Amino acid sequence: MLKLGKINIKDIIRFIGNALFLMLIFVILIDPANTLLHKKDILFILLTAFCIIFYKPDFSKLPLICMMFLAVLIPWLIAAINMRNIDTEDVLHIFKSISPIILLLWVREFDLLNLSRIPTLFCCILMDTFFCLILIFPEVEGILYNTDSIENESIFMTRRWFWGHEFFLMYLKSTVAMFLVVTFYFYKFIDKRLRTFGSFLTFIFILFYFLFSGTRSTMLIPFFIIGICLFSIYRNNPQAKRIFYPLFFIGAIIFVSTILILASETQEYSNAIKYGHIVSYIELFENNPWILITGQGPGANFFTEGFGSWVFQTEWSYLDLIRWFGLFSLPIIGVFAFPLISLWKYRADNLTFSLFWTYVAYLAIAGTNPLLLSSTGMLALLIAYSYREKITKQFSTTQ
Fold first, then answer.
1. What whole-number distance in Å separates Cα of residue 78 and Cα of residue 80?
2. Three-class SS of residue 200?
3. 51, 192, 207, 383: least buried by Cβ within 10 Å?
4. Sequence-distant (≥ 6) Cβ neighbours of residue 329 within 8 angstroms
5. pLDDT tens digits for range 90-137
6. How far apart are the C-alpha atoms of 160 and 149, rounded to whole Å?
7. Nearest 10 degrees: CA dihedral of 302, 306, 309, 311?
8. Which residues contact 127 (CB under 8 A, 6 or more apart)?
9. Distances (CA, A) of 279 to 102, 274, 318
10. How far apart are CA 15 and CA 48, in angstroms?
11. Which own/partner pairs from 275-279 qualify as long-range (CB within 8 Å, at least 24 positions apart)?
12. CA-to-CA distance for 221 and 216, rounded, in angstroms?
């Protein structure tokens, strides 16, 4: 092994690689649209070039990468042959959005769950600070809104009605990409063997952010994660089962009931839009069943009653995938779901059990947000695959 004095060259390479990935994660979380810092593209190129030069690729991941790109390319070619009206810029945007999946070739070299911890905590503390400043000094809202609107909505601010009350809410566009990291932090606090004062503070900072994070799913996900972590830790404790299982069952009923009540508020603006999308999709598929097979092609628009206009993308990600790619949407969904196999296989590990169900929740929530084929979606995907590599290696060495 090469050494420079007492410095290990391999450790230097790993340090630089981790630093580049850390910066890319930070930029994706803070600036997913690449309009604020303008550094996402260059960091991705630098990281990819660094991996090509210094790391050996894992070609077992190549079929997954090819599946993702071919699932977009083939419907595009079919649409072009049939001379459908396809916006080339939207197609290129999709290809650019899924390009980080190339990093799967080297994902075994990185512990992305660990690398994502600092950027996630930073984002939560930053948003906590903005929220508190706006509550104390309301004029800050206008300043932040005007600045951010120029930079293409990295931060969303809104007022929404829940149960007859209006709430001020704000959140980062990339919030859903934080779910797996949030599970790690919550698990570390809930497990008394790992609990420290630092873990308590991080728990408070993250929980506070998610409680005002603007969407029903992100506001409720902390309670889901807390319940899953508690269940994973105490599921094999005979004494705890007698108390915890009934409480968990009651909590699950309350959680599901809350979701159903919020989702059934037809007068709520967001719900009305989503219902309008569904009506339009049902009509589209009934009148054009061939779309379910070949798709309209990436970049194709359709008219939705939700927005009352022709759109490229709605909030129903999986329906968008079917409309764009038809049967070719299945490989894309399969690439996202593949880590669940290993996570379920090693569910005896409490953290892995918690991450399995969190990733299931992420995939469900991603279906109601247009963030699946995006840099944030790719980040969540890479974190899941990175942890899959780590837990597989850990169990294989102990057996």
1. 5
2. helix
3. 192
4. 71, 295, 318, 321, 322
5. 899 999 999 999 999 999 999 999 999 999 999 999 999 999 999 899
6. 19
7. -40
8. 155, 170, 171, 172, 209, 213
9. 36, 9, 15
10. 15
11. 275/306, 276/304, 276/305, 276/306, 276/307, 276/308, 277/304, 277/305, 277/306, 277/314, 277/315, 277/316, 277/319, 278/316, 278/319, 279/305
12. 8
pLDDT tens, position by position, 294-310: 999 997 888 888 888 88
Structure-token pair, residue 196: 């420290």
Taken in order 363, 369, 374, 375, the sign of the CA dihedral is negative
| 150 band by pLDDT with thresholds 50, 70 and 90 | very low
What Rg value do the Cα atoms of the chain yield, rounded?
22
> For residues 304 and 316, is the Cβ–Cβ distance under 8 A?
no
Whole-prediction pTM:
0.91
Q: What is the amino acid identity at position 27?
A: V
Q: Which DSSP category does 87 fall into?
A: -
Nearest to 175 by CA among 203, 212, 200, 201: 212
Residue 332 corresponds to which tokens in the numbers above?
A: 């894309």
- DSSP 8-state symbol, 36: S
Residue 2: its pLDDT value, please? Answer: 47
| 8: β partners | 3
State mean pLDDT over 146-151: 56
According to DSSP, residue 166 is labeled: E
The answer to whether residues 29 and 177 touch, using CB atoms and an 8 Å cutoff, is yes
With residue 4 as reference, give the H or E element that holds it. strand 3-4
